[in-house]
Predict the structure.
Amino acid sequence: MILMILFWGINACSAQDSFTIEGEISGLADGTVMELTPGATHQEEKPVATATVSGGKFSFTWSVESPRLFYIGQQGAWGVMTVLVENGNRVKISGTVSYQGEGNQRQADFSSVEITGAPLNDEYLRKIAFKDDLNRLYEEYNERNAEISGQLSKARQANNQALLDSLSQTEAAAALSRDEAEFFRTVGEQTKNAVMSNKDTWWGPLMMLVNMNWFEEGQKEWYEAFSPEAQKSYYGQIVYKELYPETLEGKPAPAFTVKGEDGVSVTLEQLLDGKKYALVDFWASWCGPCRREIPNLKAAYEKFASKGLEIISISIDKDAAAWQKALDEEQLPWPNFLDDADIDNLYGVKTIPAIFLLDGKGTVIAVDLRGEALQAKLAELLP
């Protein structure tokens, strides 16, 4: 009897040190690989666990130090289910999946999703329910202004500035502007309320992370209003690092290894070999400001490459074909790489383009110089 009690106690303790998620999603083919990925971090996270579908079912077992939000998705397809869990949860997820698109654009659409066994997830859904009202307001004001929005869009596509100017003077355009301003005022007000009504616990910083894609200077006041408990929480620390980022300026640049278009691996040290200075440029094919900065980078390379400047472009594209297409269009004359090792996270990149100026020893001497400021700095360093 004693042995049985001890054995039960060990199992009970072990069960409290982890959580399990059992999924049964109609439409998932056997052999499909499902991924469990940390969410609400404002980072491109890697899956922490995978599970192979069998009989339409899959399961994960994992452990967390505190409540965490996770995304559950299919390997090789966009689209996820969201669940908030803590150790001790025995979660069951049911639903249906359908698909759109092919290849890198394949979208898994999960619907009729029901989640049980995760009490915090129920509370999470209540806390973000205000977004349903915002979505309704968004649809209403867009429907109300559909005609003028379509006219303005066509004028922009045709690059017809005269027509744009004329349309902008109409009462319909003024109404659209008022509706947009009121909508975004409401979004800001309700988002702040969702955060500040939870300022004394980890829920506050989590609400910031799930309801905002990026933070601005004004959000520092929100963080400062958090309780010490909220600030020290897992999500509180993420918010802090984003609001008060450490600068790499004056520090050694994080080392990395990348593969070129030829598949050969090269290190940052090798790329810097024999160079006096280097620009590490993070960009993407879909980033308009990045593409507009390229002529300036080309001008700098043409003028200073012979004096010891190297440019190292690292694309954060997820679609290798789109990256390659952009390279063919831009014809960049310096080394180019696709970031498949989260180098952007090493450098703390939040927005692109992000440009880091390194000396030949690999020390970061300036961050985010662009346009004329970049040209002036290089002229100073490489007269």
Q: What stands out?
A: The chain has a mean pLDDT of 90.
